[in-house]
Amino acid sequence: MATATGPFGSLGLVETRRVVLFTEDDPLVLDSGERLAPVEVAYETYGTLDAAGGNAVFVCHALTGDAHAAGHHGDPARPGWWDTLIGPGKPVDTDRFFVISPNLLGGCQGTTGPGSLEPGTGRPYGLRFPLFTVADLVRVHRRLARHLGVNRLAAAIGGSLGGMQVLQWALDHPDDLHAGLLICASARLTAQNIAFSAVAREAIMRDEHFHGGDYYETGERPEVGLTIARMMAHITYLSEESMREKFGRRIQDASAPRFRFGVDFEVESYLQHQGESFLQRFDANSYLYLTRVMDYFDPFRDLPAALVRLQAVRTSFLVVSFDTDWRFDTKHSLDLVRVLQTAGVRVTFREIASPYGHDSFLLEVPEYHRTVAAFLARVAEEAGVAP
Amino acid sequence: MATATGPFGSLGLVETRRVVLFTEDDPLVLDSGERLAPVEVAYETYGTLDAAGGNAVFVCHALTGDAHAAGHHGDPARPGWWDTLIGPGKPVDTDRFFVISPNLLGGCQGTTGPGSLEPGTGRPYGLRFPLFTVADLVRVHRRLARHLGVNRLAAAIGGSLGGMQVLQWALDHPDDLHAGLLICASARLTAQNIAFSAVAREAIMRDEHFHGGDYYETGERPEVGLTIARMMAHITYLSEESMREKFGRRIQDASAPRFRFGVDFEVESYLQHQGESFLQRFDANSYLYLTRVMDYFDPFRDLPAALVRLQAVRTSFLVVSFDTDWRFDTKHSLDLVRVLQTAGVRVTFREIASPYGHDSFLLEVPEYHRTVAAFLARVAEEAGVAP
Known about the structure:
CATH architecture of the largest domain in chain A: 3-Layer(aba) Sandwich
Number of domains of chain A: 2
CATH topology of the largest domain in chain A: Rossmann fold
Number of strands of chain A: 12
Radius of gyration of chain A: 21 Å
CATH class of the largest domain in chain A: Alpha Beta
Number of helices of chain A: 10
Distance between the termini of chain A: 31 Å
Low-confidence stretches of chain A: 1-7
Oligomer: homodimer
């Protein structure tokens, strides 16, 4: 693990709240034209909104994240997933910024998703939940920001799928974001990226307990499929280097191989734990929807049109990649930086050296944290956020 | 696909034969001390053994290969898996060499494996089949060579797991091989390599139809698990570059995305086809055994002892890696080359530029084929094989 960047304070106890943002009278109109209501959103906030409503930073989570980004829910030893980045004196400084962190549409941690009850039938949606896009995620984010009294954000920040949301937000609403931070993100998945997600989905959908997505009332869940999906994905989150350091060829609880099919190497034990503990906190249908939304994301597909739209974008970007990330490697970041620069959008790009692969964005990598802190300090100054 | 290296002839119709090599009176004694009998081996031969018995080349297949390496079984359009490499005038020239190609112990294409009947019970072994090592595979290979009248081989050649067998053979029997060709092989899997195989095995063993390996008589097979295992493995056989070229983000049979969970991108269709067609030819238990044998392979673990043993090795090696192979990248080859060179063993190493990733060893990559041809021509000369 990287060293701590300083003796900063903690947010302490925080809580997740919920709010209904779209109702039958005022439904969420999706890119597909479908209407979805009600849409309830689970979210957390940290820090205080200033009088001008101009110091808000919006956190967009990645594939398996949730609203609980920072602070803790009672056990200080189990903080939120981005607690190293967000808090008093931390790179996303809650002494200065008002931070908003929701669970995504389609998720399974409090926000309306495929496990929610479908009005009319009173049964969980399952695969009847409409397919949505990254732009639809942004529609919900905007409504939440408005609900909290924020019309323009000092910044939006996200890693991986989170970065996709930030990019889409700036494209669709060029005046909304003063700044956007895209951490190990991508504007377009490669065939290999799609392939990994496709196999994960097949593992879930071919599971005998999937029942076409209607497993909620059967007492069974596609646990094998979801476990396998998570184990496989986890390989792509770590670098080969970090796996070598972390596990090498070491044998679990023994000095010599036992020659068996069960867990023998430490890396096997680690993956099993990752796969099985994931079952406690994630829903298979949400995994399907949120991986599929990434596959289809391709905002620069019609490049001439995108360049025209980008002319209006006033957002200033920080794009960060990690040199050992092979899920979304630096080329993904460079490709999107090139498009932004071609359109004359302000971009700062940093490739950070870190041994931890894609997972680096969740870890306390000092150069990464310094880069985010410096960028946000400049943003605060430009946006007139009081120190 | 790479261009053809020349208008060479074909072997035409070939056949797979079978021979019982170990019996209850003369069982195969495994590294573990367990005894296995009977052991029947399916094999093919191409070309003619010369009077001195000195022109034999032994082919060691990889994880999912079989005895049918070259020629065809009736349909010239469906040749053996290494038909581009083996045949009259080809790099492994059957006008000059007598080629032996068996199915591996533990396999499912004619050689005794977990799907074979266990003497005594009369039921398929399943997981009661003993765990074996690469050295055990070599024990069976040697017996087959002797059976065919060959005491010393001009060469043994193998890709991936096949190369592991060649390396082990030279280590265990330093006078057996005049030459050894290790194509995209490894002397030691990394944690990431093991991780991919571990997830594949979990997919199989957690399949409801696995029944602890005793699925043969249930009328069911762990088809979902084996399909997922194959789909995932296939991602690691292709380079990101070749996936980009082959599929990119193209949509299957359509010009625009259909926004659905079923197959939409071409790469999804390809992987599904690979996974499902694999079911026709492979047994899940064999997949478990043959991936596990690779995990445990580590002949240089005790390096000082290995260096001492290597002093006696008279084999001359060709080690080939491919620059876009990320399953067993060039570092795997370089690591083993370094050990061989430290021990004073003769080694020629070539990293070949090829866009096709690990799969390159199965494909007609001109520089690769030229390298193998030139090396084997020198071997033939040194070993006194008539032109």
